[in-house]
From TrEMBL:
InterPro entries: Class_I_gatase-like, ThuA-like. It comes from uncultured Saccharomonospora sp. It comes from the Bacteria. It holds the Pfam family ThuA. Residues 32-165 form the ThuA-like domain. Transmembrane segments: none annotated. This is ThuA. PANTHER family: GALACTOSE-BINDING DOMAIN-LIKE SUPERFAMILY PROTEIN, SECRETED GLYCOSYL HYDROLASE.
């Protein structure tokens, strides 16, 4: 391995500048559509979820468009997004034409992320069931709990209190 590294280094002419590092400003725009229409139970966390994704966009140089309008699911509109996030959607939210447009979007390389209740959506659309991977069945009754954070070093938990209910 060291010999290969030395040989490679020897072939690079002296005084030649390295290729520039691509900065975020030079990157291709990345646009995300967040879809949160509900046709069943509506989770109160949807606004916080949208805000969190918008914050991620600001911190990681992607744009976020949030909508509950199923009319956004057309070929022309979806083509402007690199990914579509279904955020706590529930029930039957797209008509047949909108479903067909979303299928074409995914088949043409568009991205998809389903968050939380996205699996509680479109039970009568087998293609979507295959995309999301499973359908929601049920969960037990909510209950109170105390969460104890064991690791305050990892970046995903560093900001959390030691305990909360």
């Amino acid at each position: 391995m060291a010999a290969a590294t030395s040989a490679t280094a020897a072939t690079v002419p002296t005084g030649v500048a390295a290729a520039p590092v691509v900065q975020a400003a030079d990157a291709v725009p990345f646009d995300v559509l967040v879809f949160s229409k509900t046709g069943g139970f509506r989770h109160g966390s949807i606004p916080a979820g949208i805000a969190a994704i918008q914050q991620l966009g600001e911190e990681n140089d992607f744009t976020v468009t949030a909508t509950e309008d199923a009319g956004a699911f057309t070929d022309d509109n979806l083509a402007q997004y690199e990914a579509v996030v279904w955020l706590s959607t529930t029930g039957d939210v797209l008509n047949d034409d909108q479903q067909a447009a979303f299928e074409r979007y995914i088949q043409n390389g568009g991205g998809y992320a389903g968050i939380h209740a996205a699996s509680d959506t479109e039970y009568d659309w087998p293609w979507y069931g295959g995309l999301v991977g499973a359908y929601f069945s049920a969960h037990p009754q909510n209950q109170d709990a105390t969460v104890k954070v064991e690791d305050h070093v990892h970046e995903s938990t560093a900001h959390l209190p030691s305990r909360w209910e």
